[in-house]
């Protein structure tokens, strides 16, 4: 893949963990271009590719490379692209960093090793080794309810001393730990919440932004809320959040990204709500709730099928995973 020069913007604001569109079992590049064009013109501050929302664990290396190349060729080069990586074998992760070093990305979002549950010293040495293999900035991703291991603040602050570990996506699910992270972090170390339903509280307590799957539906609403809080308009921000929070909860009523893909398919931004197993499509009951919410929430610039009658999902050939 040809390397491009990208601008590494400040790690703050609204970062969108882009879904990966599939059709008939394959990467849907036409829908991907449509998504990248749409969100590249929206009020987001960066994109995350091939992470949890992007079903990155189901992508092979060739698909991931095409995903990155297509998005990078579509969006403005000033919009930073981060690549999601995860794995429990440090050696394999080091090879992955080497393989992607020349890709048109600004940096990496790297989750804690899953399933193996290393010690805190093991976590430190794992991330330190990765940071030593690339000059690109690294955002750590702490999500213990998925990985089985919590990156505690003491270890996180040790890692923050490394020059290219620049921030964390915080999904620790512990209000005390999250608050202590915000008050104890070193200067210049970014904290982005990954808990969509806690976005208001995180920004109010000093987080720099969010990596938010629910921002797919209306990036400007999340950007507005953050800007209101930053300029001290807490009452206005609370009103804005009150109008959003039920929709955010709805988008996580069943495993993500199925509800978001259904929403994007119904708006015409993607050609199919298809997922790859073990993820499955939304239930009929949630489909109806999402369609009602979509009729009530019509952000500016959203595309084409919003006012039309629901269509049946496209049929997959036998043997093609959902």
SS elements, strand count: 10
Structure classification: alpha/beta
Overall pLDDT confidence: 91
Uncertain runs: 1-9, 303-322
Order of helices and strands: EEEHEHEHEHEHHEHEHEHHHH
Strand count, sense and barrel status of the largest sheet are:
8 strands, parallel, barrel
CATH fold naming of the domain at 13-233: TIM Barrel
Tally of individual helices:
12
The strands making up the biggest β-sheet line up spatially as 1-4-5-6-7-8-9-10
At CATH level 2, the architecture of the domain at 13-233 is Alpha-Beta Barrel
CATH class of the domain at 13-233: Alpha Beta
Oligomer: single chain
- Determine the strand fraction and express it as a percent band: 5-15%
Helix content percent band: 40-55%
Rg (C-alpha, Å): 19 Å
Outline, from the CA principal axes? globular
Rounded to the nearest angstrom, the distance between the terminal CA atoms is 29 Å
Q: What is the H level of CATH, i.e. the homologous superfamily of the domain at 13-233?
A: Aldolase class I
């Amino acid at each position: 893949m040809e390397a491009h020069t990208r601008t590494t913007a400040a790690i703050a604001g609204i970062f969108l963990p882009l879904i990966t569109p599939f059709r008939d079992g394959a990467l849907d590049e036409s829908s991907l271009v449509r998504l990248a064009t749409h969100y590249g013109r929206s009020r987001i501050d960066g994109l995350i590719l091939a992470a949890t929302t992007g079903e990155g664990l189901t992508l092979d290396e060739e698909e991931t490379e095409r995903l990155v190349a297509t998005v990078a060729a579509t969006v403005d080069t000033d919009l930073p692209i981060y690549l999601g990586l995860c794995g429990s074998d440090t050696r394999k992760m080091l090879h992955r960093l080497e393989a992607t070093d020349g890709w048109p990305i600004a940096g990496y979002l790297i989750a804690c090793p899953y399933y193996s549950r290393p010690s805190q010293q093991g976590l430190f040495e794992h991330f330190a080794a990765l940071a030593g293999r690339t000059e690109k900035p690294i955002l750590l991703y702490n999500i213990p309810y998925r990985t089985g291991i919590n990156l505690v603040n003491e270890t996180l602050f040790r890692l923050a001393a490394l020059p290219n570990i620049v921030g964390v996506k915080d999904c620790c699910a512990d209000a005390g730990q999250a608050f202590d992270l915000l008050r104890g972090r070193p200067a210049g170390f970014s904290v982005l919440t990954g808990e969509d339903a806690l976005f208001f509280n995180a920004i109010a307590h000093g987080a720099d932004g969010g990596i938010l799957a629910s921002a797919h539906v209306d990036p400007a609403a999340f950007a507005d809320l953050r800007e209101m809080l930053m300029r001290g308009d807490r009452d206005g921000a609370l009103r804005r959040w009150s109008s959003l929070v039920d929709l955010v909860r709805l988008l996580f009523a069943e495993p993500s990204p199925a509800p978001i893909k259904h929403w994007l398919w119904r708006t015409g931004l993607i050609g199919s709500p298809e997922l790859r197993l073990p993820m499955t499509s939304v239930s009929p009951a949630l489909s109806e709730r999402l369609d009602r919410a979509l009729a009530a929430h019509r952000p500016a610039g959203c595309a084409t099928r919003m006012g039309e009658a629901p269509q049946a999902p496209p049929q997959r050939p036998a043997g093609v995973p959902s």
